[in-house]
């Protein structure tokens, strides 16, 4: 079995964790563990949804893959020595260490993105650059020799997880997972990136961000 560790922390973004989970758990050879500072419930960034953390960082010392989600709570984690130390330790032996959205900030704070291009949510690009990464506006950024993959905001974690399945198993497995979750979107709107959004959409998005901070 391939063990995939998905860290949970207060004020994480639900889809950052659930999107990859939904893809990866379809594969019989992949086992997923939700890991954190302590066992028990962890609430998402708006407090409306609770997830159960099944193991502590100390109990998951050698995962094959890490998928680090993002969320408002990452702003505290970049100063968390327990989290940074765990990442530095497990990355020595992971097959792949990955992030979704602002999870990249935590990877960067642990020194894992030094000298590498990476992606994150567009709103955190400057923070990522300040932590040693080099932001690029791409949906998924791979550095396979360094065993690092980063995904941009929220929904991009699904794309990254499909690529993970291809790397960990094979292309047919990834395509089967894509079929099982019926991931075949034509979105009803075309404003999913800064390059496509108009000024009014960007202003409304900024308003919603301020409301959640």
UniProtKB/TrEMBL annotation:
Gene3D superfamilies recorded: 3.40.50.880
One example of a Gene Ontology biological process annotation: regulation of DNA-templated transcription
Domain DJ-1/PfpI: 3-166
Signal peptide start and end residues: none
Official protein name in the record: DJ-1/PfpI family protein
Organism of derivation: Mycobacterium helveticum
């Amino acid at each position: 079995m391939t063990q995939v560790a998905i860290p949970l922390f207060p004020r994480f973004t639900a889809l950052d964790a659930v999107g990859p989970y939904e893809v990866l758990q379809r594969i019989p050879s992949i086992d997923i563990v939700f890991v954190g500072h302590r066992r028990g419930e962890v609430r998402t960034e708006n407090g409306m949804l609770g997830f159960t953390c099944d193991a502590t960082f100390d109990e998951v010392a050698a995962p094959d893959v890490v998928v680090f989600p993002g969320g408002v709570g990452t702003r505290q984690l970049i100063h968390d020595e327990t989290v940074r130390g765990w990442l530095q330790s497990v990355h020595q032996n992971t097959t792949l260490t990955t992030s979704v959205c602002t999870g990249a900030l935590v990877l960067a704070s642990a020194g894992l993105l030094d000298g590498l291009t990476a992606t994150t949510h567009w709103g955190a690009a400057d923070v990522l650059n300040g932590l040693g990464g080099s932001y690029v506006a791409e949906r998924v950024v791979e550095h396979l020799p360094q065993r690092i993959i980063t995904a941009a905001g929220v929904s991009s974690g699904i794309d990254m997880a499909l690529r993970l399945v291809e790397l960990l198993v094979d292309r047919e497995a990834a395509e089967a997972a894509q079929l099982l979750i019926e991931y075949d979107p034509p979105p009803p709107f075309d404003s999913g990136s800064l390059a496509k959004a108009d000024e009014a959409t960007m202003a409304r998005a900024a308003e919603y961000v301020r409301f959640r901070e």
